[in-house]
Specification:
The structure holds three protein chains of three kinds. By secondary structure, chain A is mainly alpha-helical. Chain A is built from 18 helices and two strands. Chain A is about 70% helix and about 5% strand. The chains are: A mainly alpha, B alpha+beta, C mainly alpha.
């Protein structure tokens, strides 16, 4: 599984540092557009803080809407980083090399973006401090660790801290390359950031161990984060369709499904934006496509379990929610679209090898998954609340306001902007990983055919 | 007499590895020379010494500290504000376990990062003798030896195929 | 002499792998050696077959006694029988997948374990036989006498069940798995049997000739064989997950009033994968240590498989926690009673054994440590622990489910007492395991226990080669 020609270290430096040293002409105009886009979100947030949550479509009983949907969505995207980087690193999958950094960075930015959503959702963001920080704000009231809403920040902040440090540690050797390729202020900044990295045997040994050890340590955190997000719902016995034991693994695998799809799309974008055709090759997209078939099918199994056991109990209040999801307009239409674009369409597109190597088709499939996964969270949250039974005096549905819509859209701009700015300062494909992959390439002669091979350390 | 560094630059990893053999044969201690590269070569590829470490202890210590912090945080906050919720006990172990778990993992990861930096001897105050061509694929063989041995070592590096040998005063001898 | 050895090592490069980590069997010796070992069995092997056979007879006695004492009208007394059926089904049903899955991922280290895994396909027949009595004990879906507060139709997957539900459809699933398992074993073994028929005599020669069909090793045949195995592997996987979902629900959850637990089928599947891999590692260890297969089975197999075992162990614990915390947090009476019944009160001790042997002991004492995972005995010992844990899991779930009281009640309103095994239950449990062992050992006398063609193929793609000053493993992966 090694296509493309062998690359020299000089070529690798030149190509992969292009985004930092010679940004393309479109770079700043795109940054300006994305900044304006983000500013729209900032403005509507300001309006929401000023006027209160009345400007949204939230109501009783549907107190969670677009913002919480979007929160779960971005947490889901953040699972791509560790999934790709840690699992594939531990599995020693050669094709992981160009994907790891972009995936890890996507993790950080999507986590940061996800965090903004519940903070905005509470209406008075400054009060979040009282609820989650273990500090007595002179009132004798401490956060309740028995609430899943307090578990959430503890898990997300652990994941954010770990992922950020993981990326920074892995960046050090590449920062040394940047130090050696820059002058003036940039050189001084990269010199400080690269911590005096020389590239001696001891430093490399620990860099390699760091990759494996941190992967093994972050993996359990990654699983816990989306599990805990799922328990925001699952612990609520009053919302029947949420109180399901399968929610934790179902959310985690769904997150991996959407996250890896998002990484594939980002890789395709990077490939065409920065001309990295020799690094992000079609074989890599193909391998990710095959992985996605497995992930998607696993996710579909959990979806089936969730639905089957929702109906299994034949309890009136749960049946009411399911009837709404499957029988009532517009939820039934949304449900069909959701199932179609999250599983059946993308998997059909990933099955033929020629499709997996067609970047347009892969982009379409990956976008389709993410639209579908956004819808999935929406279909879990709103119908459940709209047909909530206990302590509910009215049944209402939910229609998002323009404020919420603009806020949600701006988060996509924010993640894109942050990724683009990152690429201007740091390489988005790990240089040393690619270089290592190059000299570990080997060939084995079997009869008259030459089979690509890899040198393995264990 | 203090030892001073000498850097031989090679454009081939095999020649750099041969230089290592030659240095060993010439009686230079394994701890006195090192290979500077732009990517992690497999362990032992240069015939270099095995690096020993205690990195695996760091996450253990971090985990214990993190768990302790988690237990203290969850138990003390609940006892400071003992409000019963949904019939659960004040010191409810399953929810406490969730936060303790996160604390344990955070402690383990923070200490691992600290351990990696400490064991890698980073951040290093000064870069020392170095050449920017190393990040372009050249291999640096960094030798610490006494002034009297500089000539001999320089000769060994040059005859092994070094494209350049340099020492601290930035004086260079091109092969 | 010493300097000569040093010079040779210098010439070839230093290898930092442990001595028996990787083995490279000589391609031309593989076939005659492995066929020879299949045909000639050591006296010790025959002794183990005899012991397994005697145990199987004990099981038959236990079964007859149970049927004579309690009949098939009540399902309660059959709890231990169900537990041991499920125990064997989850191990032997998932075992063929181990070889198929790692063949799918093109992992070279799996080569020696492929046949060991696929031989479990034969035990599908045992599963079918053991399952038949269970068809008769399951209570009807419709409540024959609806009392106040009872359901007219008990809670099952079969809301408006088709004819014969659930027994007929469950049986079909178990039979389908057995048939596919046999076909997979045959398809995988065809090339080896074609080679072995030339060396075999007597009944083996006839059998091998019949099973080998007209295999001559043509390129087209190899293509069809590999594509067939990949396709069947996919179907087998999907069927297995579905059948496990049916068994776990129809013979477990649906017999406990008010137990609604969407994670239970995945939990069942994960522990099934964990225990089947554990079993295969134990067999590989025995073959390596006492079976004379040391030159074919390197420690790398245990090292690689143990990572998967570690993952599955953690995954099972994670699923268990997800179940527990949702029920615990909800504070609903029925869920609290189910926790008390299966986890803390009635089957508290069995649950403790389940967690200790399925998670704590294998994880903390072995799987967490690289040093132990890089041995052949470490993962095998972890496997032994896991098998004990899996048995405890099946006992608490199925003995509990078979004795949870009124199956038509709305909810589990009281916590029923535990049911301890009587002599016939012990006979049944030991005997069923003995029967499975006997059939497996018999299969080892018919089929080469290592896949000859895969080991030979592996020799083409794995080498130890010099790179700079060291010697490293070079792995080639053909498309």
């Amino acid at each position: 599984m090694q296509e493309g020609r062998a690359l020299t270290p000089t070529e690798i430096n030149r190509d992969l540092l292009r985004s930092v040293l010679e940004p393309p002409k479109w770079f700043w105009p795109v940054v300006v557009i994305l900044t304006l886009w983000v500013l729209v979100g900032v403005t509507v947030s300001g309006i929401m803080i000023n006027r209160g949550l009345g400007v949204t479509g939230l109501n009783r009983p549907v107190a969670w809407g677009f913002m919480i949907t979007n929160f779960v969505f971005w947490i889901g995207i953040s699972h791509a980083g560790v999934m790709l980087s840690a699992i594939l690193r531990l599995a020693k999958a050669e094709w992981r090399r160009p994907a790891t950094r972009a995936a890890e960075v996507l993790t950080i930015f999507s986590l940061m973006t996800a965090l903004t959503m519940p903070i905005m959702h509470v209406g008075r963001p400054w009060r979040v401090l009282y609820w989650v920080f273990p500090y007595d704000f002179a009132r004798g009231i401490w956060p309740s660790v028995r609430s899943p809403l307090v578990w959430d920040p503890s898990a997300i902040l652990t994941y954010l801290t770990s992922s950020t440090l993981f990326v920074l540690i892995a960046l050090v050797p590449d920062l040394a390359v940047l130090r050696d390729h820059t002058t003036g202020v940039a050189h001084r900044i990269y010199s400080v950031l690269s911590l005096g990295w020389q590239g001696n045997a001891r430093q490399w040994k620990f860099q390699v161990i760091a990759g494996v050890l941190l992967s093994a340590l972050i993996l359990p955190v990654f699983v816990s984060v989306h599990s805990i997000v799922s328990w925001d719902f699952g612990m609520a016995a009053s919302v029947k369709s949420w109180h399901s034991t399968i929610f934790a693994p179902y959310f985690v695998i769904g997150a991996v499904h959407s996250g890896v799809s998002a990484v594939v799309f980002v890789m395709i974008l990077l490939r065409s934006m920065f001309g990295w055709q020799e690094y992000i090759r079609k074989e890599h997209i193909d391998a990710l496509g095959r992985l996605l078939i497995v992930v998607a099918t696993g996710w579909f199994y959990f979806l089936c379990m969730e639905i089957i056991f929702g109906l299994y109990g034949r309890e009136a209040d749960e049946v009411a929610v399911r009837t709404m999801q499957f029988m009532e307009y517009p939820w039934n239409v949304l449900m069909i679209i959701f199932a179609g674009i999250t599983y059946f369409l993308p998997v059909a597109l990933w099955l033929p090898r020629s499709f997996r190597r067609n970047l347009w088709i892969m982009s379409l499939a990956c976008i389709s998954v993410n639209v579908g996964m956004w819808l999935e969270r929406y279909l879990i949250i709103v119908p459940g609340l709209a047909r909530k039974q206990v302590f509910t005096f009215t049944w209402q549905t939910y229609m998002p306001s323009i404020t919420e819509l603009l806020l949600i859209l701006s988060t996509f701009g924010l993640v894109s902007l942050l990724l683009l700015l990152f690429s201007r300062v740091f390489p988005l494909v790990p240089l040393y990983d690619i270089k290592e992959g190059e000299f570990l390439r080997a060939k084995v002669q079997v009869g008259r055919s030459t089979v690509p091979a890899t040198i393995r350390e264990d | 007499m203090a030892k001073r560094p000498l850097l031989g630059l090679f454009d081939s990893a095999d020649r750099a590895a041969d230089a290592g053999d030659a240095l060993k044969k010439a009686g230079i201690a394994e701890t006195d020379y090192d290979f500077l590269t732009d990517a992690p070569y497999p362990e032992g590829a240069f015939g270099e010494r095995a690096e020993h470490h205690r990195l695996y202890i760091y996450p253990m210590i971090g985990a214990v500290l993190g768990l302790t912090s988690g237990v203290m945080l969850t138990s003390m906050t609940q006892m400071a504000f003992p409000m019963v919720q949904g019939g659960k006990p004040i010191l409810a172990l399953p929810p406490m376990a969730v936060i303790c778990y996160e604390g344990t993992m955070l402690g383990a990861i923070l200490f691992t990062i600290f351990g990696i930096l400490f064991e890698s001897r980073l951040p290093a105050g000064k870069l020392g003798l170095y050449d920017t061509r190393i990040t372009q694929g050249f291999i640096g063989v960094l030798v610490h030896c006494e002034d009297a041995e500089h000539g001999k070592v320089s000769g060994i590096l040059s005859s092994a195929g070094a494209v350049e040998v340099k020492w601290e005063n930035a004086r260079a001898a091109t092969a | 002499m010493a300097s000569h050895a040093h010079a040779a090592e210098h010439e070839q490069g230093h290898s930092h792998y442990p001595a028996d980590m990787w083995v490279f069997p000589q391609s031309e010796k593989v076939a005659p050696d492995l066929v020879g070992r299949t045909v000639a069995a050591a006296p010790r092997f025959k002794m183990w077959m005899l012991i397994a056979g005697v145990l199987a007879v004990v099981g038959i006695i236990g079964f007859i006694a149970r049927a004579a004492t309690d009949g098939f009208d009540e399902y309660g007394p059959w709890g231990y029988y169900m537990a041991v059926f499920s125990y064997l089904f989850m191990i032997t049903g998932a075992a063929p997948l181990v070889g198929l899955a790692f063949r799918f991922t093109k992992s070279h280290w799996r080569r020696p374990l492929s046949r060991v895994s696929e031989l479990f396909g034969l035990l599908g027949v045992v599963n079918v036989l053991l399952f038949i009595p269970l068809l008769f004990v399951l209570p009807p879906l419709a409540n024959p006498q609806v009392d106040h507060g009872e359901l007219a139709v008990r809670r099952t997957l079969w809301i408006a069940g088709p004819w014969g539900a659930p027994q007929l459809w469950d049986l079909l699933g178990v039979v389908a798995l057995a048939v596919m398992g046999l076909v997979i074993l045959w398809l995988s073994a065809v090339p080896d049997l074609a080679g072995a028929k030339l060396a075999a005599t007597g009944w083996r020669r006839k059998l091998y000739t019949m099973l080998a069909c007209r295999w001559c090793g043509a390129k087209r045949q190899w293509h069809i064989q590999k594509a067939g195995l990949a396709l069947l592997g996919g179907f087998y996987f999907m069927t297995l997950i579905f059948v496990q979902f049916l068994i776990a629900t129809d013979y477990g959850m649906s017999l406990v009033p008010g137990w609604k637990d969407s994670i239970f089928p995945p939990l069942y599947t994960v522990i099934s994968f964990q225990s089947s891999l554990a079993t295969i590692l134990i067999i590989m260890f025995i073959l390596r240590r006492w079976g004379g297969y040391q030159e074919y089975i390197g420690v790398s197999l245990f090292w690689s498989a143990s990572k998967i075992l570690l993952g599955l162990t953690l995954l099972w614990t994670y699923h268990l926690w997800a179940f527990f915390i949702t029920f615990w947090y909800g504070r609903m009476p029925v869920e609290q009673n189910i926790l008390k019944y299966f986890l803390f009160e009635s089957y508290g001790a069995v649950f403790a054994a389940n967690v200790v042997f399925s998670f704590l002991l294998p994880f903390v004492s072995i799987l967490l440590w690289n040093r132990f995972r890089k041995t052949d005995w470490g993962p095998a010992l972890a496997g032994c622990f896991i098998l004990v844990g899996t048995l405890a899991f099946n006992i608490r779930i199925f003995v509990g489910s078979f004795n949870a009281g009124d199956v038509y009640a709305l909810a589990l309103e009281r916590v029923p007492p535990p049911v301890y095994p009587d002599l016939w239950d012990i006979f049944i449990v030991v005997g069923c395991i003995g029967l499975a062992a006997f059939v497996y050992l018999a299969a080892m006398r018919v089929f080469p226990v290592l896949s000859i063609w895969e080991v030979k193929e592996g020799a083409l793609y794995q080498r130890m080669e010099r790179f700079m000053k060291g010697r490293y493993l070079v792995l080639a992966k053909p498309e």
